[in-house]
Amino acid sequence: MKIQILTIFPEFCEAVLGSSILGRARKSGVVQADAVDLRQWASGKHRTTDDAPYGGGPGMVMKIEPIHNALAELKTSTTRVVMMSPQGRPFTQKTAERLAGEEHLIFVCGHYEGVDQRVADHLVDEEISIGDYVLTNGALAALVVTDAVMRLLPGVLGHEESALGESFSTGKLDHPHYTRPEVFQDWRVPEVLLSGDHGAIARWRAAEAERLTRERRPDLLDVPPSTEKPPV
Ligand code: JF5
Which ligand 1 atom minimizes the distance to the CA of 88? Predict the structure, then answer.
């Protein structure tokens, strides 16, 4: 799989892509993930990627031409182009699973007040939001999606089973986890986890996941499984 993050902050993305599990996955060759500097396709002495909004108002809007020219050069017949913005469809684990099946992803990252609407209307396949808040830098959102997608790819995590059977792939929040020591100050590890009774442990974990989900995320319970449908 190949992932390209098209951004005016490539060094910022490279720092994340080069670190920890993502850095190791990249070196192992199971995935190619790179930041691509949008300014390569910006014209003029100042390599401008933004301009004042038509109709007036504060801030700057990202221009269409550099994004168009970058995509014209980077896209192949199998590319899916994703734009990160607060106006996008909500990003979920289902979205991550679907994107993990793609051969080539390009993330277009917005900044400033926004991106010329013709980019979303004509140049991208889908617009995704990572949540109901506003960032200064869409690359931050693209990195969140990249991380969630990459960890699903075979060979990225140590043990294959760790990507499944955890929070959200089950449709519920995860159960609590504990490790040594058995007692810290006066805080004990739940006795059942020390019992060696694997049936009892599985039942306790399922009950804890259910209890936590009912308490914190009742919206996740008793709803039909979402059939995520991307636009074309
Ligand atoms: C961005 C215009 C993009 O703020 C975000 C974002 C929030 N949730 N998901 C993405 O992206 C940066 C800001 C303004 C376009």
Answer: 9
